[in-house]
Amino acid sequence: MGHLYKIESYSEEAVRTLAQFIQAKGGKCCIAGFAVITNHPFKERDAGRLLPLIGKVTDNLTEWDKTQFEVLDNQIAC
Questions:
Q1: The CATH number fitting domain 5-77, selected from 3.30.1450, 3.30.70, 2.160.20, 3.10.20
Q2: I need a surface site. Which of 21, 32, 38, 64 has the fewest CB within 10 A?
């Protein structure tokens, strides 16, 4: 598992759009309220499309955040 971080946004729609983008690129993520938890590496060319959807990006995750991603990761592996 790569470096885990959380992308916070302003709306459910923006979070869904971010999650769909990550999944379409083959990445894994889980939605937690108005945030997406992921380890997906973004490309610089994606910034123009995604930046307006992002409120904050942090790698300061709670144990709950990490657990949610690990549960998702384990479900995918099964």
A1: 3.30.70
A2: 64
Reading the block at residue 76, the tokens are: 């995918």
Contact status, residue 8 vs residue 55, Cβ threshold 8 Å: yes
pTM of the model: 0.85
- Residue-wise pLDDT for 2-35, tens only, equals 689 999 999 999 999 999 999 999 999 999 999 9
Among 16, 31, 41, 35, smallest CA distance to 72 is for 31
**Within 13 Å and on the Cβ side, how many CA atoms surround 13?**
1
First-residue to last-residue Cα distance in the chain: 16
Helix (H, G, I), strand (E, B) or coil at 60: coil
